[in-house]
Amino acid sequence: MKSKSIISDLHLKFAEKTWNETFQLVRRCMDKSRDESKPCEPLVRSLERLQEVFHVSSMNTMKSRLELIAKQQGMGFHITEATCYLTADLFYLEVVLLPCGGVEDVKVAPHGGSPAPSESLLQLLRSKDFAEFSVKLAGLSTRYNIPGDNEVKLKLLTSLQCLWKDLQQISHLQREPKDSDLKVDLINNGRVGCLVAGKEDCPLTIQFYISPRNEVSTDSLADAVVQAAQVTVGVSDVTHNLQMASVIPQPPQLDPQGYPVFLPLSEAPHETLPACFLLKLQPAVPVTVSFVDKLRQITDAIIPDADLQWAPLPKLLMSRSQSASGREESMDEQDAVFTLPLPGGVMHSYVLPGAAWEVPAQRSAAADRIPFTHPAHVPALLELLRHQCAFNALLGSCLASQHVRTSSVCDLHFEVLPESETSFSVTFHRPDADSLAVLLVNVRDSRQISCTLFGEGIEDPSLAEYISTVMMRCMSVPVTLRTLHSKLAEITSAPLSPRRPATTEAENDHSAPSSTTVTDTSSALTAFPQSTSVPEDDFSVSGSAFHAMSVAKSELLPEINTSPAVNLYPVIPAGVCPHWMTRNGHLSELI
């Protein structure tokens, strides 16, 4: 009874008080906490609940809200007249307030740097979206969450800023465009991709791959899925030599191919630190075991096997697709079967035999961060990641967002098998004959994809060249196979052209023919005669029918990667700053 009486008295006492008075009372109680390192949890929760419903209409209430957010993020808080400072070890936030509780300006400053305006944080505070502001502040704290004591943190921050400046210098070097869309060309072909300048409230980001399939299927580039990587620094179990100044001489010295010549670290200021640079991939990229080995060869930083969860590549690609669509499907069957609808009411069924894709050579892992120690590593790393992304885009185009256990009613059925680390084959029933045909897809790099058709009585090499162009244009196996199927259906109704040879170069020379490799989509399209131009809608052609070569299925393997080996992703020894050499217009060797 006594307890009830006390509660009743409290209700009567505060019944007439405003929210502001109650809010100030809770604050005073928190200030009198017996242990300042551990404030009274019930009071903290009460204050947070009050903050959620309390309307910010004055400078004092805005100050109180910012102070609470700073404490939640483990930051310091200071006030000088109308300016609030949220401080951390390596950066601080400067918030200029208005008398009405509004916000005039928000600036972010790294340690020792000048404050820079942050439009994103300013708009969040002006819209009173304190929850998102807190999330943004947490991300900013993560960016500056550099390991070590304050002295080490400052050195790593300096090294990271020097790396950013060198990457920006490399990005600004002149080069010959390869795509008519300058933004897409910079992303897919730029030496260090498209750099999104690191504002004070976000790290430097590299956009390095966008699939032409995404580019064609979306209304604008902003809607397309762009593979990106944040450039940051992370803790390492071993020490590495990291730059403390630019390693690009001023003015830059360029080799004959237009690449910069780096200074050796021994000739530039550097520090030995327990950390390394990181490319934080967004989203994570499924990488096969052979590509993981190549990543390790480029840089002396270690990618621990313990950090990688191995699985068949189709399973990882499927998981990524499900994550993007919000679905979670099981892939525990021996053979994965996917049904894909295409425009015009056509249904394709793709079978990926589990036994073929679960072999050790096809083991893959979703890489979310790539360690490195020198700016010279970045172009080679990006070329390798682009190569893997191109392969993933083609294989992923065969995987529907829904995994079916039994094959639906489909017009066409295909079996997809791995042939090497960078090639796969698609087997299907021919529409023009009672036999099978095999399309071999060889992804030499992100800009070179060749298609070779094997089947009895198929004799025209122009078909392989044309299909390679279609594949490069749309980066979609189903769209390419729909086009191929329609072309094969025309063979029975079209006479053999007397000017076309009965055999092809590939029958006499097993080296990969240059005619079946498309290195530049736009130029390849214009190189075709008017009768074989590629329409925008379905990539079909009119004119004389195609006839391709007759090759046994057993001859598939000699056709794969038989051109002279080129080391696209070479080793760069630790502490050595080489310059780049190119071969045939592509990065081939770091010396």
Could you name the ranges where pLDDT drops below 50 across 5 or more consecutive residues? 214-223, 325-332, 402-407, 497-555, 561-591
Kindly name the structural category.
alpha+beta
The tally of beta strands, per DSSP, is 20
Largest sheet: 7 strands, mixed
Distance between the termini: 87 Å
- Mean pLDDT metric: 76
- Count the DSSP helices: 17
Strand order of the largest sheet: 11-12-14-15-16-17-18
Number of domains: 3
Radius of gyration: 30 Å
Strand content: 15-25%
Note the overall shape.
Answer: globular
Helix content: 25-40%
Give a verbal description of the structure.
The chain has 591 residues and is an alpha+beta fold. It has helices at residues 2-14, 19-31, 41-53, 59-72, 119-126, 130-143, 150-172, 182-189, 212-217, 289-298, 313-325, 354-357, 377-396, 461-474, 477-491, 505-508, 521-527, and strands at 76-80, 83-87, 91-97, 103-110, 116-117, 194-196, 205-210, 226-243, 270-288, 311-312, 335-342, 346-353, 363-372, 412-420, 423-429, 436-445, 448-454, 517-518, 580-583, 586-590. Helix content is 34%, strand content 25%. Strand 1 and strand 2 form a beta hairpin. Helix 2 (19-31) runs antiparallel to helix 3 and helix 10 (289-298) runs antiparallel to helix 13. It is globular, with a radius of gyration of 30 Å. It starts with a helix and ends with a strand.
